[in-house]
Design a protein that fits this description.
CATH class of the largest domain: Alpha Beta
Largest sheet: 5 strands, antiparallel
CATH topology of the largest domain: Alpha-Beta Plaits
Number of domains: 3
CATH architecture of the largest domain: 2-Layer Sandwich
Distance between the termini: 52 Å
Structural class: alpha+beta
Order of helices and strands: HEEHHEEEHHEHEEHHEHEHHHHHHH
Shape: elongated
Number of helices: 16
Strand order of the largest sheet: 2-1-5-4-3
Helix content: 40-55%
Length: 413
C-alpha cells in the first residue's frame, strides 16, 4: 500500500511539473508553485528577468526566513484570485503575480510569476488562473493519497503501542513490510503535548494542527524515516535513533512547528512541551520509549526546570518516580521529613533540595543560593532540627531527598 502511495505521489509531482512548464512556455516567463508553507513544489526553466529570491528558493526549496516574514505581511490567505505584489529591494524581490492554488474550495499553495514590468495581460492572468486550478486538482489527488497513507499508518502505530505483545509484533512487521517504515536499528519516540493557558483542552482543530506539524517535521526526515500518530491530547513521532542523531534538532523543530500550527502562544496554549524517550532496540519495543516520553512530560509539567524540551535520560531520580502511579506516590512516597520542611519554612525546603542535589557540598550550595557558606551550615542544622534527621547519615539523606523529589512531582511545592 505504501509503495503504491509513493509511486502515486511521484506521478502527482511529475504532473505538477508539467503544468508549470506548459504555462511557462505559453507565457514566456518563469513559473513556480509553492505549498502553503512556501516550500517549493515545482518550478520551470528560467525565462526573462530573475531575482535573488527565486535563486535562493530554488537552491533551498523554501523561502528564506526574512522573505517568509514579508510574505506573511501580504495576507495571501485572503486572496481569491491573482494578486500583484510590489518589489522589495532589500530582500531582492522583483514585482510578481501570485495566484492561489485552490480546488474544491481547498487551498493548497501558490503559483508565482515574476512580472517586473507589470506587463501580464488579463488574458495571460486567466491562463495562470487556469493552470493554478489544474495544479489544485493535482494537489487534491495527492492529499487523498496522503490521507489514505496516514490512516493506515495511524492504525498500525496505535497497535504498536498496544498492551498486547502479539499485536505490537504484528503491527511492527506490517509497518516494515508495507514500506511505511525502514528499520535502521534502534528507534526513539518523541511526544509533543500542548500546555493549556486556559480551561479548554485539545479539540479537533488542534489535533489537525498537530497532524500538520507532524507532517512537516516528518517530511524533513525523509521517506520512511518516521511514523506519526495524533492521540487525544498529544502528537507522537517514532523515529529511527540514527536519524535522530543526525537531526538532533527534531524535538525543537516539532515544538516550534506545533506552536506555529496551533497559532502561537495564546490564551488557549501557553506552550508545547516535547519529550524524548530512550532508544528502544526494536520497533516492536517502541512502546517502552513511548511510555518513557509520557513520563518525562509528566515531570516537565510539574518541575518547570525540565520544560519545554525534556529527555527521559536526563530525569535522574524523577525517571524512577514518574514510572510509579501518582496515587501510590501520594500514599507512601512523601516522607514526613519533607512535609515537615514544607510546613516549617519553604526556604529550608529549597536549601535541603539544593544541598542534597549537590551531594552535601556546602560551597556549591552557597553559590547556587547566593548565600555565605556559614549560612548554609546554619540552615543545615535547622533542617536537621525540624526533621529529626542526621544529614551526615546516607540513609537519612536518601529519605529526605526522595521525599523532596516526590513532593515536586506531586505539585506540593
Amino acid at each position: 500500500m505504501a509503495q503504491a502511495c509513493g509511486r502515486m505521489v511521484s506521478r502527482v509531482l511529475e504532473e505538477l511539473q508539467r503544468v508549470v512548464e506548459t504555462l511557462a512556455h505559453r507565457l514566456g516567463r518563469a513559473v513556480a508553485v509553492d505549498d502553503l508553507d512556501f516550500r517549493l513544489l515545482a518550478y520551470s526553466a528560467h525565462f526573462g528577468e530573475g531575482d535573488e529570491w527565486r535563486a535562493r528558493v530554488i537552491l533551498s526549496r523554501e523561502a528564506p526566513p526574512e522573505a517568509l516574514a514579508w510574505l506573511r505581511r501580504q495576507r495571501l490567505g485572503r486572496m481569491t484570485g491573482p494578486v500583484r505584489l510590489p518589489a522589495d529591494k532589500e530582500l531582492g524581490i522583483l514585482p510578481r503575480v501570485v495566484v492561489p492554488v485552490v480546488y474544491q474550495n481547498m487551498r493548497f499553495g501558490y503559483l508565482w510569476l515574476i512580472d517586473a514590468e507589470g506587463s501580464l495581460s488579463d488574458e495571460q492572468l486567466a491562463l495562470a488562473s487556469a493552470a493554478a486550478v489544474d495544479a489544485g486538482a493535482i494537489c487534491f489527488r495527492e492529499r487523498v493519497v496522503s490521507q489514505l497513507r496516514t490512516a493506515q499508518e495511524g492504525e498500525l502505530v496505535r497497535d504498536l503501542f498496544s498492551d498486547d505483545e502479539q499485536a505490537r509484533g504484528i503491527a511492527s512487521a506490517r509497518l516494515v513490510e508495507s514500506g511505511l517504515f525502514a528499520p535502521r536499528g534502534d528507534v526513539t519516540v518523541v511526544v509533543a503535548r500542548p500546555i493549556a493557558g486556559g480551561a479548554d483542552g485539545v479539540d479537533e482543530d488542534d489535533r489537525i494542527a498537530l497532524q500538520a506539524a507532524l507532517d512537516t517535521v516528518s517530511t524533513r526526515l525523509g521517506d520512511r524515516g518516521s511514523l506519526r500518530l495524533v492521540r487525544p491530547d498529544h502528537a507522537v513521532l517514532v523515529i529511527a535513533s540514527a536519524t535522530l542523531r543526525r537531526s538532533p534538532e527534531t524535538p525543537d523543530a516539532l515544538r516550534t512547528t506545533s506552536l506555529d500550527r496551533l497559532g502561537g502562544r495564546s490564551a488557549k496554549w501557553r506552550d508545547v512541551h516535547v519529550a524524548t524517550g530512550s532508544a528502544a532496540r526494536r520497533l516492536d519495543d517502541a512502546v517502552t520509549s513511548y511510555t518513557q516520553a509520557l513520563d518525562a512530560l509528566r515531570v516537565a509539567e510539574v518541575v518547570p526546570s525540565f520544560a519545554p524540551l525534556v529527555a527521559h535520560e536526563t530525569l535522574g531520580i524523577y525517571a524512577l518516580l514518574a514510572a510509579q502511579p501518582f496515587d501510590q506516590l501520594g500514599t507512601y512516597g512523601v516522607h514526613p521529613s519533607a512535609r515537615q520542611l514544607l510546613e516549617a519554612d519553604r526556604d529550608l525546603f529549597t536549601t535541603a533540595e539544593v544541598y542534597l542535589d549537590r551531594a552535601g557540598d556546602a560551597r556549591s550550595t552557597a553559590a547556587e543560593l547566593g548565600l555565605h557558606r556559614a549560612s548554609v551550615y546554619h540552615r543545615v542544622r535547622r533542617i536537621e532540627d525540624v526533621t529529626g534527621l542526621d544529614l551526615s547519615d546516607g540513609q537519612h539523606r536518601l529519605l529526605l531527598h526522595l521525599g523532596i523529589k516526590v513532593s515536586r512531582l506531586l505539585g506540593l511545592v
